[in-house]
Amino acid sequence: MSSNPFIQSIAGTCISMSYILVGNAITQSFMTVPALLVDFPPAKSPAHAARAQLLGRQWPLCWTVGNQFFRPISMLGFLGYGAIAMYLYRQSSTLAARGNAAQADWRVYAVSALCHLATIVHSARNMQPLNDKLEALAGRAGAQEMEEAEGVARRWASWNRVRILSPLVAGSLALWQSFFL
Questions:
Q1: In this structure, which of 19, 88, 93, 131 has its CB flanked by the most CB atoms within 10 Å?
Q2: pLDDT tens for each residue of 36-58
Q3: CA 104, CA 177: separation in Å to the nearest integer?
Q4: Comparing C-alpha atoms, which of 169, 170, 164, 180 is closest to residue 112?
Q5: How far is residue 41's CA from residue 45's CA, in Å, rounded to a whole number?
Q6: Distance CA 74, CA 178 (A)
Q7: Mean pLDDT of 64-72
Q8: CA atoms within 13 A on the CB side of 88
Q9: Which residue ranges run through the membrane (predicted)?
Q10: CA 88 to chain centre
Q11: Longest CA span, the chain
Q12: What's the CA gap between 51 and 57, in Å, rounded?
């Protein structure tokens, strides 16, 4: 392990945050969304509009936690992994000048940082428009949007799998590399 306990702490914290993000995304995709869609009436059913409106009212409760808690965690993971990569890069160039080789590879932490960056960009670019569509069901959506309510929720759950995979890869790579710190 690295003799720098600060770097070890950052690595451990970032790895923990990666797996917290994985767990949250699994819960959202495979528990929360399916629970909201249980017995969802077909689009032509008279009960469909009321149920779509209910989904729109429930949705902000589901993703507010993501906006207020998990967005900063993903950003801190990106910054933390990036800081470790920079530290190790500088350490490796210093050790190489002295004829020693660094044990931990900075590129692995850089990939972990990029995984978190991909999660952030994906959340903003692909997931936020779906969040807006789902929230609009509470009262601002037209008839066409109301008919598509279940499909939008299912698409959200499907796209959320990226937010399972990216932090899982980031945390797993960093965990493996942390044995060499």
A1: 88
A2: 999 999 988 999 999 999 999 99
A3: 6
A4: 170
A5: 6
A6: 19
A7: 82
A8: 27
A9: 69-89
A10: 25
A11: 76
A12: 10
